[in-house]
Design a protein that fits this description.
Blueprint lengths: L10 H8 L8 H12 L3 E4 L6 H12 L9 E4 L3 H14 L7 E4 L5 H9 L4 E4 L1 H10 L9 E5 L1 H5 L4 H9 L6 E6 L4 H10 L4 E4 L5 H4 L1 E7 L5 H12 L4 E4 L3 H13 L4 E4 L5 H12 L5 E4 L14 E4 L6 H8 L9 E7 L4 H11 L5 E3 L9
Parallel strand pairs: 1-6, 1-7, 2-4, 2-5, 3-4, 5-6, 8-13, 8-14, 9-11, 9-12, 10-11, 12-13
Helix pairs in contact: 2-3, 3-4, 6-8, 14-15
This protein binds adenosine monophosphate.
Length: 376
């Protein structure tokens, strides 16, 4: 398959892709689009950056019935930022049509959402908590779906959203198509997914390391005491175009961001303790490259597609090896080069071994050595 036209997509889709400069499907799109269009359930392992969002959005758009008064597709995603990103991709596909897409997530004015849900909505993109709110208030009806998508399915089914997702599933109709997309699908997640999917076809993007292959990974060994100094030395010697710096907790994000601001680094922060409007403001200025550094917790680890992120700094080693892959996948998008640097304190060694096992690679490392002038 060489062109999107070969899928017999509706003309407006081909045109709206073309106006974004997109004309050739990526491997995961090539594999999944024809099968999803036929109506099968699909369980797909595809890393972000492989084009997985369009892989589910295009068949959804292709199958929309313009006469239907119901919500026809529901996409559930773990973070608000991802919901915003998917909505924005969907809106680009819907340009010059009357297809309506409604993002539903916490932190937004619920009355404004209610008003919009009263109108015609074709596609809902939601985070689980706020969607459940609407389901309980009976202000959204998801019992006539053609397609349900669980994006980042491993997180949705496994790490904490499981009960919410199960309740959402109960409110949907049985005869819908279900698609699960995730960067990683281990056997535990697959077992859970099989409980509510109908004979799903399992698919993998041909090369699992598409994204990782284009990322130069490095480890800097440093004691906790000098971590901040080591980070600043890296930033000063590189002056990256756009970078995300990951910390383990909200408090550590606050602390590091404050220290960086004092040093006049162009930075801001993102974590779940901030108001929704503050989160959106920060993401917007980062996307527009008005700030150079985003200091964040793992809310920013998954699925976000921000063009131009050249560097990832793991100020703290992640607590799970999966998370490492998600974090560094924020760079090296769509074949661009990226650099990922992880600061490793002695207590982190066991986790590093686990990460290296997971990615099947020994990450080159160096020791941080303080320059003599600083050694007082
Ligand atoms: P995703 O993996 O869904 O996060 O997609 C990553 C980025 O790739 C998004 O910015 C898409 O707009 C872009 N993209 C998706 N499919 C294609 C394609 N076939 N050709 C070029 N860019 C694409």
């Amino acid at each position: 398959m060489n062109k999107f036209q070969d899928f017999n997509l509706k003309q407006f889709l081909v045109e709206n892709l073309k106006s974004q400069g997109i004309d050739k499907p990526t491997p995961i799109q090539d594999m999944t689009i024809p099968i999803i269009m036929e109506g099968s359930d699909v369980l797909a392992e595809a890393q972000t950056g492989t084009g997985k969002t369009l892989a589910f959005l295009l068949p959804i758009f292709q199958n929309l019935d313009s006469e239907s008064p119901h919500v026809q597709a529901l996409i559930v995603t773990p973070t608000r930022e991802l919901a915003i990103q998917i909505t924005s991709e969907a809106k680009k596909l819907a340009a010059n049509t009357d297809i309506t897409i409604l993002p539903v997530f916490g932190g937004q004015d619920i009355n404004a959402q209610l008003k919009k849900l009263n109108g015609k909505v074709d596609i809902v993109v939601a985070t689980p908590g706020r969607l459940l709110d609407h389901i309980r208030r009976e202000t959204v009806d998801i019992s006539h779906l053609s397609t349900l998508v669980l994006d980042e399915a491993d997180q949705m089914l496994y790490i904490g959203f499981r009960n919410e997702v199960e309740m959402i599933l109960k409110s949907t109709n049985k005869d819908k198509q279900t698609l699960c997309f995730s960067a990683t699908l281990d056997s535990k997640v697959k077992k859970l997914a099989y409980k509510f999917m109908k004979d799903p076809l399992e698919m993998r993007a041909p090369s699992q390391n598409v994204t990782l292959d284009t990322i130069e990974q490095r480890i800097v060994r440093v004691s906790d005491r000098w971590k901040q100094e080591a980070l600043f030395a890296e930033l000063d010697s590189t002056n990256p175009f756009l970078a995300i710096i990951f910390c383990r907790t909200k408090r550590r994000v606050d602390k590091l961001e404050e220290a960086m601001s004092q040093k006049k680094y162009l930075c801001n922060k993102l974590h779940g303790g901030m108001t929704q409007s503050a989160r959106q403001k920060v993401m917007k200025s980062f996307r527009e490259a008005r700030i150079q550094y985003l200091v964040a917790t793992d809310v920013a680890a998954r699925g976000l597609d921000i063009s131009g992120v050249s560097h990832i700094y793991n100020f703290d080693v992640p607590e799970e090896s999966e998370t490492y892959i998600h974090r560094i996948g924020r760079t090296g998008r769509m074949g661009d080069d990226g650099v990922a640097i992880t600061f490793v304190a002695p207590k982190d060694e066991a986790m590093v071994s686990e990460i290296e096992k997971k990615i099947g690679l020994k990450i080159p490392s160096s020791e941080y050595s303080r320059s003599t002038k600083d050694k007082k």
